[in-house]
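ugh ok so i messed up the first submission bc i forgot one of the chains. this is the corrected input, ALL of the components this time, i swear. 367 residues overall. if the numbers dont match what u have on ur side tell me asap before i send this to the collaborators (the ones from the other lab, u know who)
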Amino acid sequence: MDPSDDIIIIETKKIDVDSPIVLEGVPDMGLVGSIAVSHMVQEQNFDAVGYIKSDLFPPVMVVHERKVLNPVRIFQKGKIIAILSEIPIDPKPGYMLSKRLTEWYKEKGVELIVSISGTPLQERIDIDEPEVFGTSNNEEILKKMEDSGVKILEEGFVSGFYALILKNSIELNLNSSVLLAQCYSSYPDPGAAASILKILNKMTGLNVDVKQLIEQAEDLKVNYRALMEQTNASIQRENKVDVPTMYR
Amino acid sequence: MIRRYYIISRDANHSFKEHYWHINYCSCNNVEPLTEFNETKGSLIATLDMPCVEKEKIEVTSEEKCVSVFAPTTKGFCFKRDINLPFSTDPEKVLATFKKGILVIEIPKKVKHFKVEIK
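and heres the new structure output, hopefully the right one now
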């Protein structure tokens, strides 16, 4: 039995799109991915089309507008598929989830994977408009990212769940990219999520309005506090894997 | 810069704090703010995320071995955090700033020994 068989992707509605673009929002630094994808899904009225279940996930269900929902869900609108997790993904389930997801992306003929995250910056408090950095395993996508205002990473590293997505994408010949907005490392950062969405608007032709995200930033920080606390604990567990000294 | 209270003795601070909190915020649910620490040779910088808080309502009290933060939010709960220090500080030298919903407290370490000039 393949270890990734522990991860089951359930499609509650048939997902049949030609060459879809996948946007991933999994909790990590500043919850940038989760906040950005959650806002996009609500603002653009994405359809809930599935969820991901696993015995390796923590025993958590979430309640939104009186509905009990799985914490890792799949949404779709047109060519865009969004993966949104409202639980931090620990390293062990992370390995399996990344493997299962990239296999599923391959089956679906995904054109591009965009993983959304943050890069912590000590001086974040002094920055009004966080910059967005990025990397990809495809030169053409790097060019497109650069044209959309992304600063391409020349040196550095991507760690955690998104590193696994990149690694598996290379093995499966999928186009994968990671967007990283400057963010607070331990606090929810709706401002960084807004910066990412502005870039995605240019890259994918989306038209997500980020005004509400910025105006309600304080309220969102309160709402996301508990998830941030759990994510910080998960990041600490993950950080037991040392990054080479040259990248520190 | 937000208001600060300088309390000389630990006992005095305790009675002050209990009395003060009781009068103002006893019905509040307390939540610890997300906090980051950055220690340098001369000080400890504590950064506390406190959204939905008004600067004027934040109370920071400092003692030699503890800095306490309390702030009611507009959401019906209060942020509360006692930072117990592994070193001594000069309570009157503790500095705090509040910007974009983040409270930054700079806690200087008390100089315990210094070079004595020989005459």
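quick check: The two ends of chain A are 38 Å apart (CA to CA). that seems consistent at least. Chain A has a mean pLDDT of 92.
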